[in-house]
Write a structure and sequence with these properties.
The complex is a heterodimer of chains A (282) and B (383). Chain A is of the alpha/beta class and 282 residues long. Chain A is 17% helix and 30% strand. Chain A has helices at residues 84-90, 131-139, 162-169, 216-228, 261-264, 270-277; strands at residues 15-24, 29-36, 50-55, 59-64, 75-80, 97-104, 117-123, 147-153, 174-180, 190-191, 208-213, 236-239, 255-256, 259-260, 267-269. In chain A, the strands form three sheets. In chain A, strands 10-9-8-7-11-12-15 form a seven-stranded mixed β-sheet, with helices on both faces. The longest helix of chain A has 13 residues, at 216-228. By secondary structure, chain B is α+β, with helices and mostly antiparallel strands. In chain B, helix 1 (15-24) crosses helix 6 and helix 8 (246-252) packs antiparallel against helix 11 (321-340). In chain B, a hairpin with a 5-residue loop joins strand 13 and strand 14 (294-301). Chain B is built from 13 helices and 16 strands. Chain B has helices spanning 15-24, 84-87, 123-137, 144-150, 169-172, 204-213, 220-236, 246-252, 257-265, 271-275, 321-340, 350-353, 361-370; strands at residues 3-11, 28-35, 38-43, 54-59, 62-67, 91-100, 103-107, 116-121, 154-158, 184-191, 194-201, 216-219, 282-288, 294-301, 311-312, 315-316. Classes of the chains: A alpha/beta (282), B alpha+beta (383). At the A-B interface, loops of A face strand 6, strand 7, strand 13, strand 14 and strand 15 of B. The complex binds flavin-adenine dinucleotide, iron/sulfur cluster (SF4) (2 copies) and FE2/S2 (inorganic) cluster (FES). FE2/S2 (inorganic) cluster binds next to loops of chain A.
């Protein structure tokens, strides 16, 4: 990981960024584009990493970077408003400042997928930390094998990045499948949990890596089903979520058995998570 | 009479000279003092600030001060506070920010803490400082607040010559003799008609202070007496925590019935984590003024015993008291080893003394060890 430099400065001090754009994705989810207030550029991050975003006087939250790693002049986040701090975050107006710390954590091991197929499995807001992987693969198409995106949302109205999903589906060597829990009358697509899409995915498990992000219960089922479809445990990666107050290993909140989700994760290979996922209230 | 090269003798009537030498060097000296029926750490300027002639009686769930029949300065064991009070304080301001227009500025951090000397650091406490050093400045990220407070601390360690019934440093390999990074180490010898300290330097800074005191070399006999006093403390220690295979023992007994048993007694009051010299967990609170132009972020001690600690949208991950006690004990004794290469427990016994219902970490380990769950029974939690 390329995180070593962070240790020299104060990792607890946010940098002011200003909101350049706010896009409404769904009724409760917004994509914010931030740029450094002081004009400083260079926001290298790895797909899967997160930032700690601070709303002045309100609070600070871990939010995954959902933008394109090739666009170094900005940081993009997709935030679902579920409570006080996320609500304050998505209510920022263009030009207002947000504090940013990070990027923190491990990324998806995209480099391991070179020459192999990439399977992305997302549930709900879980598509946000996976979008940088999709950008990376589509920008460097020749480096990677097939890209399969399986995405599940509650309802058609809850689908994120709707236009992009359609555009990705038109790329070569790319398959995008979407399912919803409740379709409604006008929905012609798949209905059911995301794992029901596995039988339509065209890829070779033996030469693929799978990246999954969504509610923990969903990831458990995804990982289990991928195993039965022939994926080795060490070729399945999950993005874990726990309460976080610091992002850098100081506050203790994100502990998950022997791991700190913030600095050892949030992305872990399934072979390491499997024994822990079975433990209720770990 | 033979003498040892690096051990000297300091008469108790000259003890003030040691304080003066430290104060003269610009150190704020922090050491033991009696406050509200307990020995805590506070600013020490003169000999009379020290808990002269006091000792502490400790048992499971019990602490009280009692007068000794001598004038010992360090005749107690450990109190409810530890040095994390200064190195990793209960509340510290992370930042101050001011809004200007639509943006904000982060104003500069706190002034640097004063140069400090810690007087009376016990072996288990020295070990605990090393444990927190590893967590807060020895991992991927360095906590600059801790690092600034830690840097340049002058440590006057004290060998224990008596132990409390709650102590188990011998099981954790941390005491009662001080080892590691101290500047000066003292062994107090007090008896009929005599009161003196065997003193030795553990660093150049310590040697410099020692030279100023111009003490005479300790006789071989006196050094032996000091060693015997520390050995006596070691042999007083009755509590044991068998650490053999402790990590796997706790990992494989995740579903042991003993966790339910302890949950019946545990009040989840978090006392054990507050008094523990190694517990480092914190939360952050935001405050802002009425006009909304000034904001601060404060870091405060938190505890894995609180329900909110593991809250993520929808509910707490560890909502049962059982899961929270298990997190505490498993972190201390097992996952800490995976995380930082050593145990998170130094055997100081504070959590035993200060538990209002007398839960004893050594007893809980023993109960699990004596009837381990079958591997079949373990790790099949509800989803
Ligand atoms: C590594 C990581 C990446 C994340 N990425 C995203 C993302 O890209 N988009 C997004 O919308 N959400 C993301 N989340 C979840 C997001 O952090 C929570 O939804 C948010 O903290 C809820 O805060 P709140 O105050 O609005 O909600 P409340 O329910 O009022 O929460 C109160 C407090 O609890 C804590 N908390 C609550 N839920 C979570 C949670 N799920 N994770 C961690 N702490 C929580 C926070 O400290 C929060 O301030 C991520 C979480 C993690 C750990
Ligand atoms: S767990 Fe208890 S005995 Fe161990 S270091 Fe903490 S307070 Fe001391
Ligand atoms: S025992 Fe609990 S409060 Fe103490 S360091 Fe571990 S998680 Fe934090
Ligand atoms: S978020 Fe603070 S230790 Fe991981």
């Amino acid at each position: 990981m390329t995180m070593a430099t962070a240790a020299t400065t104060d990792p607890m001090l946010p940098q002011p960024y200003s909101v350049r754009q706010v896009v409404k994705e769904t009724a409760d989810t917004f994509t914010l584009t931030l740029e450094p207030s002081n004009g400083a550029g260079g926001n290298r991050f790895q797909p899967g990493q997160f930032s700690m975003l601070w709303v002045f006087g309100v609070g600070e939250l871990p939010i995954s970077i959902s933008g394109d790693p090739a666009e170094r002049d900005r940081l993009v986040y997709t935030v679902r408003s579920v409570g006080q701090a996320t609500h304050a975050l998505v209510s920022r107006e263009v030009g207002e400042a947000v504090g940013v710390r990070g990027p923190f954590g491990t990324g998806w091991p995209v480099e391991k997928t070179e020459g192999r197929d990439v399977l992305v499995v997302a549930g709900g807001i879980g598509l946000a930390p996976l979008r940088p992987v999709i950008y990376e693969v589509l920008h460097n198409r020749e480096k990677y094998g097939r890209l399969v995106v399986l995405y599940g949302a509650r309802s058609p109205r809850d689908l994120l990045y709707r236009k992009e999903l359609a555009a990705w589906a038109r790329q070569r060597e790319t398959q995008v499948l979407v399912t919803v829990d409740y379709g409604g009358l006008s929905w012609r697509g798949h209905v059911g949990v995301v794992t029901t899409l596995f039988k339509y995915a065209r890829l070779q498990p033996a030469r693929s890596l799978a990246f999954a992000c969504g509610p923990e219960i969903m990831m458990r089922f995804v990982a289990r089903d991928l195993e039965t479809h022939g994926f080795a445990q060490e070729n399945i990666y999950l993005s874990m979520e726990r309460n976080m107050k610091c992002g850098v290993g100081f506050c203790g909140h994100c502990q998950y058995g022997p791991h700190f989700i913030c600095k050892d994760g949030p992305i872990f290979a399934y072979d390491r998570m499997r024994p822990l996922l079975e433990k209720y209230e770990l | 009479m033979t003498e040892r090269v690096n051990q000297y003798v300091l008469e108790s009537r000259d003890f003030q000279q040691l304080l003066d030498a430290l104060i003269k060097r610009g150190y704020q000296v922090l050491g033991p003092a009696v406050r509200d029926g307990a020995i805590v750490y506070d600013v020490v300027e003169s000999l009379s600030d020290l808990p002269i002639g006091w000792t502490d009686e400790q048992e499971t769930g019990r602490y009280r001060l009692r007068r000794r029949n001598d004038e010992a300065l360090f005749g107690y064991v450990v109190g409810p506070q530890s040095w994390k009070k200064y190195l990793h304080p209960a509340e510290v301001r992370l930042l101050t920010a001011e809004r200007s227009g639509r943006t904000f500025r982060i104003l500069n951090n706190e002034p640097a803490p004063p140069r400090r000397a810690f007087l009376g650091v016990r072996a288990c406490e020295l070990a605990a400082i090393a444990v927190q050093d590893r967590v807060l400045e020895g991992d991927r990220y360095r906590d600059p607040i801790y690092a600034a407070r830690r840097e340049g601390i002058f440590i006057v360690a004290v060998n224990c010559t008596q132990a409390a019934p709650t102590c188990f440093c011998t099981s954790m390999g941390t005491g009662p003799r001080v080892r590691g990074a101290y500047d000066l180490a003292l062994t107090e010898l007090v008896g009929p008609g005599k009161h003196e300290f065997v003193i030795e330097a553990g660093s150049d800074a310590g040697a410099e202070v020692l030279a100023e005191l111009a003490p005479s070399a300790a006789s071989e006999a006196l050094c032996r007496e000091a060693e015997a006093a520390v050995e006596r403390a070691a042999s007083q220690i009755q509590r044991r925590l068998d650490t053999t295979g402790i990590r796997d023992l706790l990992y494989t007994n995740f579903d042991h019935l003993r966790w339910d048993n302890v949950a019946q007694r545990c009040l989840a009051c978090a006392n054990c984590t507050m008094v523990c010299p190694t517990c480092f967990c914190t939360t952050v609170e935001d405050v802002s003024d009425v006009t909304g132009t000034h904001a601060e972020r404060w870091r405060k001690w938190d505890s894995c015993f609180s329900q909110n600690f593991s809250y993520i949208h929808g509910g707490s991950v560890r909502s049962s008291a059982k899961s929270r006690y298990r997190q505490w004990m498993t972190h201390k004794l097992a996952s800490w080893i995976d995380q930082f290469g050593n145990s998170g427990c130094v055997g100081c016994g504070r959590c035993i003394t200060w538990c209002p219902v007398g839960i004893d970490i050594t007893e809980e380990v023993r109960a699990i060890r004596e009837s381990p769950a079958s591997s079949k029974e373990s790790s099949h939690g509800k989803p």
